[in-house]
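Friendly challenge for the regulars: who can give me the structure tokens for this chain first? No prize, just bragging rights.
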Amino acid sequence: MILLIASVFGFFLAVLVALARISRNKVIAKLSLFYTSVTRGTPLLIQIYIFYYGLGSLFAQFPLIRGSFLWPYLRDGYWYIVFALVVSVGAYVGEVIRGGLLAVPKGEMEAASAFGMTPRQALLRVRLPRALRLLLPTLAGETVMLLKSTALASTIAVIDLLGAANVVRAQTLQVYEPLLLVAGVYVCLTFMIEALFAFAERRGTPIRRSA
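First reply, four minutes later:
Bragging rights claimed.
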């Protein structure tokens, strides 16, 4: 579930970051560059600790927050790991999508304009879909990296696959078997992700028929 939520929200954040990076507004472009540089330049584990121990401790100082309906979520480490992963995906995948947008041939955008599309329509109907098709193999790799990053959830007492394995190890005193089982699950999930993106790539690539 962590992977799914972080993938969906992280992808939408990444699209916004990519658009901001190529924006003609220098302020927006510089702010997005600062965000991606800081996020990509610091270890994910440190970001998780800052969000969980830093923000978590800060929110606890305000009685208004502790008494609100948000407090059950703000004291739960699950949502901090999700937030950290979304921020990370937004930065890394945002740069990937930016490269894809810049790689779309100008001729396609000129053709869209010739058909009467506005710049926004051309972006949503031509440029962005075209960029995503070009980036499917790279996005598959980023998703696999995100999958492996979810293992860091256990560092703040969030029970994920690795956290469950650690619980089993503590209860059964079996050291290697739970870890090998979790490793097998990660490998299976990786194969599923790669197969899904390969299928999407085949569907998005037109088949050339010989004359």
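The first helix runs from residue 2 to 21. The domain at 2-153 is CATH 1.10.3720.10 (MetI-like fold). Your move, everyone else.
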